Amino acid sequence: METAYSGQRITVVGLARSGVGAANLLAHSGASTTVTDLKKPEQLAPFIEALDPAVSLALGGHPAGLLESSDLVVVSPGIPLDIEPLERARLNGVKIIGELELAYQALRRNIGASAPEFLAVTGTNGKSTTTALLDEMLRSGGISTILGGNIGNSLAAEVLDLIVNPRAAAIKYVVSELSSFQLEAIESFRPKGAAILNITPDHLDRYHEMGPYMSAKCRVSLNQSSIDYLVLNADDPYTPELERIIGAHDQKPQIFYFSRKKEVEGAYLQNGKIRFNLSARRMSSISPDMAVPDASLALDPYAFVIKGVHNIENAMAAALMAGLAGCSFSGIENALAAFPGLEHRLEMVRELNGVKYINDSKGTNVGAVLKSLEGFAEPVILIAGGRDKDSDFSLLRPLIKEKVKSLVLVGEAAGKIAKAVCDVTQCEMAGYDFRVAISKAKEAALPGDVVLLSPACASFDMFRDFEDRGRQFKQMVMEL
């Protein structure tokens, strides 16, 4: 078919889930598409099998001249934008966008004004849970959605399915979890609604300092206007800086807040219930058919399947976004009463001899571990460690001293974590043996304790990804 990409030479950098989605979307759109990756074919076999046969491959390195001679380069989220081949292409006048931007452009160009709107969730922690919960709320309220991004399928794959599938007309929203890496490479992407859940130091091995990291997150609102909305965390110490960055954008969305500590315009916790404070005037400026609950309606966190203070925040953000998107209060309430949570996010594995074993493998940064520990009243035996992302583990000291009776350290970062916190609790070293770490945690636990895997680190020193780490933890725990 004839599209905006027909006949163009387009290179996709990075062949993984996002790269496959982008390449297949471009091939379907008539582009002469090549995928390049530093990895060799044998390392990428599952992804190669998923590619459209029309896609060409340049693997084992980025061939000289390939990117510079392209009409467009599409970068997968894991690829830093400052690598030398991209710099050379940029100097040669080649436009560089990310897979998110490609998906957004393709949806608008192929479906037009009737294309579904995007709802985007970003932040450091809680993105997957909030995104999945938002999707469940909308569906429970009778609103058709698709889910993608950092959760589920790649957005490019979902958009390709919408383009070739007549069901596109029934879809109202694309609910998307977005990382800072995805947002770095947007151009025109404009979500109807967005949320920045929180900011804690993360990915400092890539950003080196907090300023660029926060700026990347704030790009979610870069193209929003006053008929769009943005949800922020009023309790987060970085929110004033986010507001300053957003204030410098050419256009600004309507901003609402959620808070566990004070009444705000948005959603807040009062006397143990989630309440809402929203004005009809501001609602009508976004859309005449908003279904936002008023302060006379409240959500009871004790009725939620998901537990923990962090999930109260996630629920407030999701409920606020859902209401602003037109979801009924009953849809919001019913979803919260049924939503079971996600794998690897404070997931109960089993109880053995009075000890609970909990898989929080998605706790890949210090902020996530702080949120997890905050929710436990029981003594915790914490398993932590992995590949460091230039994190400041000393931030864990107060809660480890208060809540962690024993800390079991594993992987590359074990020594660094030990220097930061092992003077405030008992520590055990497990080297690179995950089974030994679990065994040491079991030995330290008494009835009524919790063994918590919440590593504060990436998984790549010992595992394929955080999911592989979590599943191996669960398997080993079930074998105890």
Task: Summarize the structure in words.
This protein is α/β, with parallel strands linked by helices and about 475 residues long. It folds into three domains: about 10-95, Rossmann fold (3-Layer(aba) Sandwich); about 100-340, UDP-N-acetylmuramoyl-L-alanine:D-glutamate ligase (3-Layer(aba) Sandwich); about 345-480, Protein-Tyrosine Phosphatase, Chain A, CATH 3.90.190.20. It contains 18 helices and 19 strands. The strands form three sheets. Strands 7-8-6-9-10-11-12-13 form an eight-stranded mixed sheet, with helices on one face. Helix 2 (about 45-50) links the parallel strand 2 and strand 3 (about 55-60). Helix 1 packs parallel to helix 4 and helix 4 packs parallel to helix 6 (about 155-165). The longest helix has 16 residues, at about 310-325.
Characterize this entry briefly:
Helix 1 runs parallel beside helix 4 and helix 5 packs across helix 12. The chain contains 18 helices and 19 strands.
Neighbour order of strands in the largest sheet: 7-8-6-9-10-11-12-13
CATH class of the largest domain: Alpha Beta
Kindly give the count of domains: 3
The quaternary state of the protein chains shown equals: single chain
User: Helix count?
Assistant: 18
Helix-strand blueprint:
Layout: E1 9-13, H1 17-28, E2 32-37, H2 45-49, E3 56-59, E4 72-75, H3 84-91, E5 95-98, H4 99-111, E6 117-122, H5 127-140, E7 145-149, H6 155-164, E8 173-177, H7 180-184, E9 193-196, H8 204-207, H9 210-218, E10 229-233, H10 239-247, E11 254-259, E12 266-270, E13 273-277, H11 280-286, H12 309-324, H13 329-338, E14 347-352, E15 355-359, H14 366-374, E16 380-384, H15 397-403, E17 404-409, H16 414-421, E18 426-429, H17 434-444, E19 450-453, H18 466-478
Parallel strand pairs: 1-2, 1-4, 2-3, 4-5, 6-8, 6-9, 7-8, 9-10, 10-11, 11-12, 15-19, 16-17, 16-19, 17-18
Antiparallel strand pairs: 12-13, 14-15
Helix pairs in contact: 1-4, 1-6, 4-6, 5-12, 5-13
